[in-house]
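Standup notes
- DV: blocked on the single-chain target, sequence here:
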Amino acid sequence: MTAAPRRPATAPEGQVRAWAEEAVAHLSHALEAPLIGWPGWTDVLERHRSVALGHRLKDTEGFREGMATEFEAMLYLSTASMAAPLGHHEAHVYMALFTRFLPEWAKEASIAYDAPLDLVEKELLDRLRRWIYRAQKDHLRSKARAAKAAKAMPAVVEEASVPRMLTTAEAEHYETLPATDPASVAPAQGPA
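- DV (later): unblocked, structure below
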């Protein structure tokens, strides 16, 4: 009797587990991380939430490197440009990303920016993407800490605020007490 041939393993179990954990972390980040924008202009971001989600799901390389998507960088620069004028290099990065991701809007606004980013602008873009990613992670961590603290904190209920039925002994005790006329009780004397 011959033994059945063993099916070759495609990947070690530990490696499969690591891939699965990374995939879950990436999906969780893509779904839960907030869009980061300049304070006061974040309402602009909501219009692009579904498109940003699509870019997040596609950009596994950026996630591995701890970077937000280029689309999210464009959204941040868009909100920053509404708060104050962008610098020379920031404006070039924004225009390049804007024409790449929103070509119809760029054409409508007569923006044609085909020049590649230089080394300074590429570095600026990478630093911005890393900063946005860290801000998203910080937000998610603080949100998780708050949820954990809320879960761990016991509910505080004042005993007097919880209605309950009196026991028979308590009811009989209250029936035997003499009725008190509020007018017959002397008011409390304050400090003289």
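- Follow-up: The chain has one domain: 18-153.
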